[in-house]
Design goal:
This protein has one domain: Spore Coat Polysaccharide Biosynthesis Protein SpsA, Chain A. By secondary structure, it is α/β, with parallel strands linked by helices. Helices cover 29% and strands 25% of the residues. The strands form 3 sheets. A 7-stranded mixed beta sheet has the order 5-4-1-6-10-7-11, with helices on both faces. The chain has a two-stranded antiparallel sheet with strand order 2-3.
Length: 245
């Protein structure tokens, strides 16, 4: 069977923690929008049949992106939650020639530091016949605390430590996360029907008893979540540009 690869980029959110009037995926870092950096990486890979971006129904910025007009890039209207946007992308793929056994790479629109070697590493893992799907991830390096109290009455919320977690078996899940189109669509539908708000695609698969493999990525593949992340991400993008030159 010839394996085919597609990508879905849920990009309809605003990012409540980002504190900006501009959705974070459209923030300009190192001369380009965050989402443009994401699209550039995927479009460098000839293996992808198409890249589908799920955008907000009132989005007027997407068409202004440099890569929005590439022949392999398509926009669909996303939903209220991330999972809804991923489902919208999967439905578009089904309606436009993708098979339920094709692999779909789901990647955050606000994660512009993904590189081609990470995508290739995921594809290599998928070559194993028994592979149930893959998640790009890195082992946890910091000491993690479980919180047991938050006092929101304070001007600065007071958070108390409940316990220190054993980090030896903990990993940070990143994206891309890759699953068969049909299996992922079914899992996300089950999660929605059960009223279960999944925060990533792996969680939906786990809900139906499928546990993906972890493929180690790079710690630099961070997500733009808070405004202070912008400085670090832009610095890495500029450093990469200098290294290439």
């Amino acid at each position: 069977m010839i394996e085919r690869f597609w990508a879905v980029i849920p990009g309809g959110g605003h990012g409540r923690r980002f504190e900006s009037p501009i959705p974070k995926q459209y923030s300009n870092l190192a001369g380009s929008a965050v989402l443009d950096h994401v699209l550039e990486c995927f479009l460098k890979m000839n293996e992808f049949e198409a890249v589908v971006v799920a955008i907000h129904k009132e989005d007027q910025r997407f068409t202004g992106l440099h890569h929005a007009h590439d022949s392999r890039v398509f926009a669909v209207t996303g939903g209220l939650e991330r999972a809804d946007s991923v489902l919208a992308g999967l439905q578009w793929l089904n309606a436009n020639g993708a098979d339920h056994n094709d692999w779909v790479f789901v990647h955050d629109a606000a994660r512009p530091l993904v590189i081609e070697s990470e995508l290739s590493a995921l594809m290599s893992a998928l070559e194993q016949p028994e592979c149930p799907g893959v998640v790009l991830a890195v082992p946890v390096a910091d000491t993690l605390k479980l919180v047991n109290k938050v006092d929101a009455r304070e001007e600065i919320p007071i958070t108390c430590v409940g316990e220190t977690l054993d980090r030896s078996q903990l990993w940070h899940a990143m994206t891309p996360q890759v699953f068969r189109l049909g299996a992922l669509r079914s899992a996300l539908t089950v999660a929605s029907d059960r009223g279960f708000a999944v925060t990533d695609d792996s969680q939906a698969m786990e809900l139906v008893g499928v546990f993906p493999w972890l493929v180690r990525g790079r710690r630099s593949n961070i997500k733009l979540t808070y405004s202070e992340d912008s400085e670090l991400i832009e610095g890495i993008l500029l450093a990469r540009r200098t290294a290439v030159v």
